[in-house]
Specification:
This protein is α+β, with helices and mostly antiparallel strands. It has one domain: Creatinase/methionine aminopeptidase superfamily (Creatine Amidinohydrolase, Alpha-Beta Complex). The protein contains five helices and 15 strands. The protein has a five-stranded antiparallel sheet with strand order 8-7-9-14-15. Strands 1, 2, 4 and 5 form a four-stranded antiparallel sheet that branches. It has a three-stranded antiparallel sheet with strand order 3-12-11, with no helix packed on it. The radius of gyration is 17 Å and the shape is globular. About 50% of the residues are buried. This is Methionine aminopeptidase. Monomer. Belongs to the peptidase M24A family. Methionine aminopeptidase type 1 subfamily. InterPro entries: Creatinase/aminopeptidase-like (IPR036005), Pept_M24 (IPR000994), Pept_M24_MAP (IPR001714), Pept_M24A_MAP1 (IPR002467). Its EC number is 3.4.11.18.
């Protein structure tokens, strides 16, 4: 059953989402060659706890870490390791936090130093597909409208859209109804109604859409060994329109990136603190 959130609950969820956003912003200045994802994981846990929240992934489904860090051919659910990041790598950092009894959960794929143009394009297309999907999250539309928009945009550019892993509803549980696939048919699936909150998260592969799981029981990788990208936002349906609760602006401030990509999805300006 889909759990509808009141306006007050959505504002509490915005606080939870922004803790994750701030954590990713802090990590943005730490992602560089020579750093290990285990080091990033330790920093993230300390940061989340210092800001009055609880790591959302740690212990959930027996997850052993605060972050899920997926490098290069890893799609999602990569466990932090002692292996240093290298120049030219990409790493998806997925992070969750529990605050005000609600979860925040979102992700960003970072460049490690200079990356090759082909991989950079994969990241750009994947991130743009996230916003293309978010535009379809509006009153009267259905789950399939979001999935169709993401799938068409990415497949038209020759990329593989992962089927087995999907976005989800978000609230007092990390994973609520409805599931939010990144593929689908227009007009199919559950209808969007006021007060829904979902995590939309395209997982897009440079080559085949097919994936496999490593022996650690967590890490999902592309079947052909080509890179994969992953971006995720928490989005509420407010006044019939998508309202992004999370933000990449903390990341962009650290990296010196100018962007207004989120502005159309905010009914009030975001005040960074």
């Amino acid at each position: 059953m889909i759990k509808i959130k009141s306006p007050e609950e959505i504002e509490l969820m915005r606080e939870s989402a922004l803790i994750v956003s701030k954590t990713l912003g802090m990590l943005a200045r730490e992602v560089k060659p020579g750093v290990t994802t285990l080091q990033l994981d330790k920093l993230a846990e300390e940061f989340i706890r210092d800001h009055g929240a609880i790591p959302g992934f740690l212990g959930l489904y027996d997850c052993p870490s605060t972050l899920l860090t997926s490098t290069n051919m890893a799609v999602v659910h990569g466990l932090p390791t002692n292996e240093p990041l290298k120049e030219g790598d990409i790493v998806s950092i997925d992070c969750g936090a529990l605050m005000n009894e609600f979860y925040g959960d979102h992700a960003y794929t970072f460049e490690v130093g200079e990356i090759d143009p082909e991989t950079k394009k994969l990241l750009e297309v994947t991130k743009e597909s996230l916003y293309i999907g978010i535009r379809e999250f509006k009153a009267g539309n259905r789950v399939g409208d979001v999935g169709f928009a993401i799938q068409k945009y990415c497949e038209d550019q020759g990329y593989g859209v992962v089927r087995e892993l999907v976005g989800h509803g978000l609230g007092k549980k990390m994973h609520e109804e409805p599931e939010m696939p990144n593929y689908g048919k227009r007009g199919r699936g559950k209808k969007f109604v006021e007060g829904m909150v979902v995590a939309i998260e395209p997982m897009i592969n440079m080559g085949t859409r097919r994936i496999k799981q490593l022996k650690d029981g967590w890490t999902i990788v592309t079947a052909d060994g080509k890179p994969s990208a992953h971006f995720e936002h928490d989005v509420a349906l407010v006044n019939g329109k998508p309202e992004i609760l999370s933000t990449f602006k903390y990341i962009y401030d650290e990296l010196g990136i100018e962007s207004n990509e989120e502005d159309e999805f905010r009914q009030n300006p975001l005040i960074l603190s």
